[in-house]
Amino acid sequence: MPYVTEANLTDLAVERWSDIPDPRLRQVMRAAIKHLHAFVREVEPTPAEWFAAIDWLTRTGQMCDAKRQEFILASDVMGVSMLVDAINNRLASGATPSTVEGPFHIPNSDEFADGQSMSKDAPGIPCVITGTVRDLDGKPVGGALLDLWQTDGEGLYEAQRDRDQYMRGVYHSNPDGTFTVRTVAPIGYTIPMDGPVGELMNRTNISHMRPAHIHFHVAAPGYKPVITHLFQKGDQYIETDVVFGVKEPLIVEFHKKGPGKAPNGETMSGPWYDVKYDFVLQKATSAQKAA
Length: 291
Ligand SMILES: [Fe+2]
Hints:
Blueprint: H1 9-16, H2 23-43, H3 47-62, H4 70-77, H5 80-88, E1 126-135, E2 145-150, H6 158-161, E3 168-172, E4 178-184, E5 189-190, H7 196-201, E6 209-210, E7 213-219, E8 226-232, E9 251-252, E10 255-257, E11 260-261, E12 267-268, E13 272-276, E14 279-281, H8 284-290
Parallel strand pairs: 1-13, 1-14, 8-9
Antiparallel strand pairs: 1-4, 2-3, 2-7, 5-6, 7-8, 10-13, 11-12
Helix pairs in contact: 1-2
The structure holds fe (ii) ion (FE2).
Fe (ii) ion (FE2) binds next to strand 7.
């Protein structure tokens, strides 16, 4: 092996990190070394700057616990989480696009009957979401699972309210594919800004807000499940979502209605939102072919 110079150091490191039996790990580590070296060669950090980077990563790890994942947040705000999601969900044109799950999904939500409210006593403007789950050929998908989670009308999730079974629920589509969800409208919210990611964001002009959205996991036997969001059209943060989650087909109109009868049969005494969206699932077999 030749001795080290600034010029040959990258080649030496890539070569050494090629001695890995697992071919995928070998590929990953060779690319990681190559791109890390390219980053350092471009930026030319001083020792103090390199230590600041190590310190930021250290504190990012120390901020993580059972409920808080600061590294995922870092990945989210740099667009990496959505890129990994896009690469792993190259769906057919016309299928409902996927997005990242995010940190607020809680499994085993209570089940609700079609049209029944999952919002209980939560603050917010009533919101009724109706639509059909169907496949790429337009065929209705009955019995599809719709697992929803969202903020209440004050922008807070269950985990931030110290509540149980709050602003989340499971519905199933009817035999004709239709579904009716009764909830309250979410509002936009800030990502956690009290950690190293927030500290970094505060040194930029980047918005740390997410536009109002409802998270959905939609699944049915024989179909590729999709994790996605529906976003409220016109939200002030719709074009600057800090985690890059907004895909155009996922922006939906929240039609504001006056008092009266809603599609779930409920008589609303004040304003409420009427939201319509059809989920389109792709067959599991064609999804595998696409992958
Ligand atoms: Fe969210």
